[in-house]
Amino acid sequence: MNRRAFVQGLAGVVAASKWTEARTVETRLAERLAADPLRPQYHLLPVANWMNDPNGPIFWRGQYHMFYQYNPDGAYWGDMHWGHAVSADMVHWRQLPVALAPTPGGPDSAGVFSGTAAVVDGRVQMIYTGVRSVPEAAATIKNGDQSLLETQCVAISEDESLSRWRKRTQPVIAAPPAGMQVNGFRDPSPWRQGEWWYLTLAAGSGERGGAVLLYRSRDLQQWEFVHLLAERKGSIAVPLEKPDANEVWECPEFFALGEGAARRHVLIYSTNGKAYWLSGRLDERTMQFAPEQAGVLDYGSYYAPKTQVDAAGRRILWGWIPETRPLAEYKAAGWAGLMSLPRVLTLSAEGRLRMQVAPELERLQTAEQRLTPMSDAEALRVSMKAMRIADYCGELRCVAARGERAWEMALVGDEAKPWLRVAYAPMNPLEVCVNGIPVPVAGGGACEMRVWVDGSSMEVVLNGESACTIRFYPEGREAQELHPQWTGEATALRELSVWALTPISPDRLTTLA
Ligand code: FRU
Question: Among 311, 331, 357, which residue terminates a domain?
Answer without folding.
Answer: 357
